[in-house]
Amino acid sequence: MAALYAGLDVSLELTSVCVVDEDGRMVRDVKVASEPDAIICELRSLPGNYVRVGLEAGPLSQWLCFGIKDAGLPVVCIEARHAKAA
């Protein structure tokens, strides 16, 4: 199975989900409701194994991060200012 990486751009109502494969090719770019079940459903709709799912720290990030982690996906929450410095 393909190795997949996902980036989540979270807003209050919708989350943009961008998934790329191990070669950096875009597999999916879609918007879903900003709730764990909707995001998990979208991520699991693709064949492959996730290496990392990343989302930026924000008002919903703790709730989303714990929900995605509880579903068994390898999620990390990133503080944008720290990522920019790296």
Q: Could you characterize what this model shows?
A:
It is built from 3 helices and 5 strands, in the order βββαβαβα. It has about 90 residues and is of the alpha/beta class. A 5-stranded mixed β-sheet has the order 3-2-1-4-5. The protein is globular and about 35 Å long. The model has no long low-confidence stretch (mean pLDDT about 95).
The low-confidence parts are: none
Biggest pleated-sheet summary: 5 strands, mixed
Q: How much helix is in the residues?
A: 25-40%
Estimate the strand proportion.
35-45%
Termini Cα gap: 30 Å
Secondary structure tally, helices:
3
Computed Rg: 12 Å
| Strand tally | 5
N-to-C series of helices and strands: EEEHEHEH
Mean pLDDT: 93
Secondary-structure content class: alpha/beta
Question: How does the overall form come out from the CA principal axes?
Answer: globular
Write out the strand line-up for the largest beta sheet, numbering strands in chain order: 3-2-1-4-5
List keywords for this structure.
29% helix, 5 strands, globular, alpha/beta
Structure at a glance:
The protein has three helices and five strands. By secondary structure, the protein is an alpha/beta fold.
Helix and strand topology:
Elements: E1 3-10, E2 14-21, E3 26-33, H1 36-44, E4 49-56, H2 61-70, E5 75-78, H3 80-85
Parallel strand pairs: 1-4, 4-5
Antiparallel strand pairs: 1-2, 2-3
Helix pairs in contact: 1-2
